[in-house]
Specification:
With 522 residues, the protein is an alpha/beta fold. It is built from 17 helices and 18 strands. The strands form four sheets. Strands 1, 2, 9, 10, 11, 12 and 18 form a seven-stranded mixed beta sheet that branches. A hairpin with a 2-residue loop joins β6 and β7. Bound molecules: flavin-adenine dinucleotide. Flavin-adenine dinucleotide binds next to α1, β10 and α15.
């Protein structure tokens, strides 16, 4: 139940963005209610004890934070700790039958340079890498400070970066850029992966959705560093919930919104509490749900052709011990960052081709991360040596699982494990812990699972394709909602989730920007 029947603002969904908006608006003195269909808040930003008999709290869906601006942490007084990983990435490779690998330190130094040299035979590729990422960083420095401001226009951003950088990241399909600037297949692949995490696209797609995904992965706080939230993603949501509640927002869980009816100067929201329909009025409704879901709630005609489609395979493992790699690298170094598997450039191109033609890629490209190396607090009182391992597989669109979801999922998990096993001294299976029922601690989520669990349409982790974090030069920017990139076709309904412009990922940016649009309208 809600404490009243009319609010200044009703927020549909208590994902981290809905909570961010609630905290800002309640702090500004507005009456705010958040309605969440699940029994818990956080959406994709939650921690869970996924394995019976184990106290470990895993970040069940999202796991790393880059795009959450420090300003939001300060404004909302969030008690969160984001910790750097000692390794940026490790890529095991097998060349001429010899196991090796590329190590990129978080703060790149001599070891990184030597690793490039050993893999590629000269310093040229590392020079190309440094030049490329310096160019990208310069674009990031321009874009990052604008993310919590009214939208800049494309030309404003373009005028502040070198024309080559603009062309290579914003105009040319990223595949072309990568092929022009790098020669080594492994290096090309590592660069390309940031364009494909959460985005199913060809690297040469003229629509450039892969370029936009790449940019989001590299602009967080102007550094693009991905850090581990201490206590897992649930700790981020806990801090946002506390901030919203302390400021006076009401949060109702188990409240699935069924319809939103915008009217003159107010909107009616109908939700179901598990027994009955309930209704309330609000001056403004903020939709933390995906734009496609919002369309359904607004009673717009159902159109499956515009439904987003997710393409990732997320697997959480609990291990008794970390496996040894054939390359001889210390597992505590290799697994501490992003460990790339079957993500060579050629493999990425073939995997996309296979998936686009309706076949599960083999090998399956993906990456693994061991967060407990950076944040052992999530392990609870697990025995020494226990570690979490997160796998994020790409190029596995929902359509591949439609005919036989369970069978195809099992095969995808087998291929994911095989891609790691290819680089291990002993099979991963021998390191996986058992749960209280004697089953291996493996939790796999295909897009269909994500849609069922979180109501992300098609299991798309960003609620839909990412947009450029600026407005086209000719865009209408007349209303506050348009200026903040949160508009819908109704004045009383704004987006405040991942599907807003600049909303993708765990950032709180969409929540902040929707709140600013509301405050500016009053
Ligand atoms: C497997 C996975 C891994 C990811 N990894 C990362 C990562 O490491 N780092 C990163 O930055 N991003 C990652 N992402 C993306 C990121 O998690 C999302 O973009 C982000 O969490 C979206 O937040 P949100 O608050 O906008 O929406 P959501 O988290 O989707 O929250 C929306 C909320 O609305 C609720 N809702 C839906 N329909 C209704 C309704 N009718 N009535 C009431 N409530 C409703 C949902 O239950 C949910 O709680 C990942 C996502 C997934 C799925």
């Amino acid at each position: 139940m809600t404490s009243r029947s009319r609010y200044d603002v009703a927020i549909v969904g208590a994902g981290h963005n809905g909570l961010t908006a609630a905290a800002y608006l309640a702090k500004a003195g507005l009456s705010v209610v958040v309605l969440e269909r699940l029994g818990n808040v956080g959406g994709a930003a939650v921690s869970a004890e996924a394995f019976a008999g184990h106290p470990t709290r895993l970040s069940r869906y999202s796991y790393l934070v880059s795009l959450l601006p420090d300003q939001i942490v300060t404004d909302l007084g969030l008690d969160i700790d984001l910790v750097s990983r000692p390794t940026a990435s490790y890529t095991p490779v097998d060349r001429d039958g010899k196991p090796g690998g590329l190590l990129v330190e978080r703060v790149e130094g001599e070891q990184t340079r030597q690793s490039f040299h050993a893999l590629t035979g000269s310093d040229e590729e590392y020079e190309a890498w440094r030049t490329f990422y310096t160019d990208v960083a310069r674009l990031g420095w321009v874009v990052a400070p604008t993310l919590l401001q009214p939208l800049p226009r494309a030309s404003q951003i373009r005028s502040q970066v070198h024309p080559t950088t603009w062309n290579d990241i914003v105009v040319a399909p990223l595949g072309e850029t990568i092929e022009r600037r790098f020669t080594d297949d492994t290096i090309r692949g590592i660069v390309a992966t940031d364009a494909l995490i959460g985005t199913f696209a060809s690297l040469h797609d003229p629509a450039l959705v892969q370029n936009r995904c790449f940019l989001y992965h590299l602009i967080g706080n102007g550094t693009g560093e991905w850090r581990v939230p201490v206590g897992g993603m649930g700790a981020v949501t806990d801090a946002l919930t506390k901030s919203a509640l302390d400021a006076g927002a009401e949060i109702v869980t188990g409240a699935g919104v069924r319809s939103i009816r915008p009217g003159a100067g107010a909107a009616e929201v109908v939700w179901h509490d598990g027994y009955n329909d309930q209704g309330l009025q609000a001056d403004v409704v903020l939709a933390n749900v995906a734009p496609w879901v919002l369309g359904l709630l607004l009673g717009e005609p159902h159109d499956d052709t515009t439904k987003p489609e997710g393409a990732q395979l997320k697997i959480n493992f609990l291990l008794d011990r970390l496996p040894q790699l054939r390359s001889g690298v210390d597992p505590e170094v290799a697994f501490a960052g992003t460990l790339h598997l079957s993500e060579g450039y050629g493999e990425l191109l073939s995997a996309y081709g296979a998936a686009a033609a309706g076949r599960l890629p083999d090998p399956l490209p993906g990456e693994v991360y061991c967060h407990s190396l950076t944040d052992p607090s999530i392990l609870g009182d697990a025995p020494a040596g226990t570690h979490t391992l997160t796998y994020f597989g790409i190029h596995t669109p929902a359509s591949l699982f439609e005919a036989d979801p369970e069978g195809t999922k099992q095969e995808a998990v087998r291929r994911a494990i095989a891609s790691l096993d290819a680089h291990l001294v002993e099979p991963l299976q021998t390191c996986i812990a058992r749960d209280a029922h004697g089953q291996p601690c493996i939790e796999a989520k295909i897009p269909q699972d994500i849609e069922r669990d979180l109501a992300m349409p098609g299991g798309h982790i960003f609620h839909g394709d990412l947009e450029w974090p600026w407005a086209p030069d000719r865009a209408r920017l007349e209303t506050p909602a348009e200026r903040w990139g949160v508009q819908t076709s109704h004045d009383e309904v704004l987006l405040c989730g991942s599907g807003a412009r600049r909303g993708g990922a765990v950032s709180g940016i969409a929540g902040h920007n929707a709140a600013q649009a509301v405050l500016e309208s009053r």
